[in-house]
Model the fold of this input.
Amino acid sequence: MTDQTNAVVHTPRVFSGIQPSGHLTLGNYLGAIRRFVEMQESGIETIYCMVDLHAITVWQDPDALCHATRELAAGFIASGLDPKKSILFNQSQVSAHAQLGWVFNCVARMGWLNRMTQFKDKAGKNREAASVGLFAYPNLMAADILVYHATHVPVGEDQKQHLELTRDIAEKFNHDYKVDWFPITEPVIEGAATRVMSLRDGTKKMSKSDPSDMSRINLTDDADTIAKKIRKAKTDPEPLPDSIDGLEGRPEARNLVNIYAGLSGRKPEDVIDEFAGAQFGQFKPKLADLAVSVLSPINAEMNRLMADVAEIDRILGDGADRAAAIANPILERTFDIIGMVRSRQL
Ligand code: AMP
Ligand code: TRP
Done:
């Protein structure tokens, strides 16, 4: 579809992905999955992917990867993603991602990727030993999004830089080939908990890969474990302040307030109003009860779904067929624009 200026008008379409590289955390749930569900319910076309090709940029044990992919699918569905309303699939089943990823390896510049902070964090001191895939990772992420002409991408705060790169890649491609082909995607970074922090250190992101399991709440944790992790979460000795400004310089307190707000769907300001002056000894049990009430049903549903992996695999296969039906024509047209000879359908 084109408008009067002949610019392509892109219908709204949502894409996002999560790596199957460990258990889902409360950070994934509040920062990403909750938003995925809201967008699905808003009636926009939604496509959600288990990005297994991204996961192998660092070593994954094959059996563990397979299990984590199915568990992630179960986590999506248990959290409210409906395979009839959204397209749910794992990345490696739709080859267009890797194919467009290669094209983008040739569009993005070394200098752009050299600035990516996630690569610096993940590669650590020994960059020579990092995989080439870990460096090129954001190009594949741009391909994930643009192979669907997705217009909106819900993510946590940590993915902002990758989405800016996605826009840069789309712009450079459109500019170099003199086309108006790829959309300039909007990041959707919203809610009280776009950056959930570690329970052991309020200055570090809660992450699947943190060596300490006490630093995070997993969607697979049972009620006792959740309560214990919250009870033991690091805090300071002061009571909760009576205004949001009083959280300044108190990262652990801020984090727990944000988590409460995220789980209850309220604003951090309202949580502070309710708990002004409360000691952590009072606040933490309330937070634990809330977390258990939200997460336990999800956990139970995940266990139920994981008892039938054949059904999960069927859902992923069906999602991949539907995803490929959108992606392949976009990839074919992209190859035409680039000047690839094409004498058979993908
Ligand atoms: P990953 O686990 O790195 O594949 O992340 C999947 C999604 O969860 C992305 O949208 C991230 O931005 C989001 N996410 C991961 N960790 C957090 C966190 N601690 N707080 C908020 N969002 C997060
Ligand atoms: N890079 C994202 C992360 O680590 C995962 C991801 C891969 C993604 N491809 C994506 C997120 C496309 C959104 C859209 O969290």
